[in-house]
Each structure stands twice: as structure tokens, then as C-alpha cells.
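User: When convenient, might I ask for sequence and C-alpha cells for a protein?

AI:
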Amino acid sequence: MKQIIHTEKAPKAIGPYSQGIKSGNTLYISGQIPVNPSSGKIVEGGIVEQTEQVMQNILAILNKAGFSFADVVKSTCLLSDMKNFGAMNEVYGKYYSENPPARAAFAVKALPLNVMVEIETIAVK
């Protein structure tokens, strides 16, 4: 049985998808982009600010579903430019200082709303 996870503390979906889906003990979080949920706008700044907002959006969905970063088993990081990998990685690493999840990171041609980073997440309890 799947349960739709939605919180006002993360950006609203900009398409036909859910912020998160919980199925059994697994939580699948849709790719999060650096939209501030309060304003509905992309955060100002560069890759550091954008990654921070993405991680806060992920945290809000994790919390709504009763999960934490400690429960994350897999992340996929999409970047508009691999030159931003180091700075993204530094911010990302603050959230996974112990027992980090498996991860893939790669550059794509373009991301929604021309953002620099999008991260999808899978967590298991």
C-alpha cells in the first residue's frame, strides 16, 4: 500500500508527481530543486545556497514521513555542471557526516527551472 507524503514545508510539485511516496518501510522522495517553499521561488545565490535549500526540502519531507537523514540509503544528485560537484558535495556532506548513503552524481543537459542541482532520495526504516 502506498501513502502520499506531502508537506507545506517543501515546494509544491510542479508536475504530476508527489513530493514523496511511502511504501511499507521505504520512502521515495521525488527530485527536489532549490525552491523556497514559502516564496515558491528559486533561492538566490549559487550552488552552495541551492544545495542547502534542496537538502532542507528533503529534510522537510523526511520529517513529515517520520524519517531522518540517518534513514537515507540512496541519493541521486543531478547537476547542471560538474564544475559544481565539489561545492555541492561539501554542503551535501554536512547532512551525512556518519554512514553516508549510496549515491550517484552526474551532470545533465538541463534541470527544471534552469536550477543548478536536483537531488532525489530513498530512505528505509
About this structure: The first strand starts at residue 2 and ends at 5.
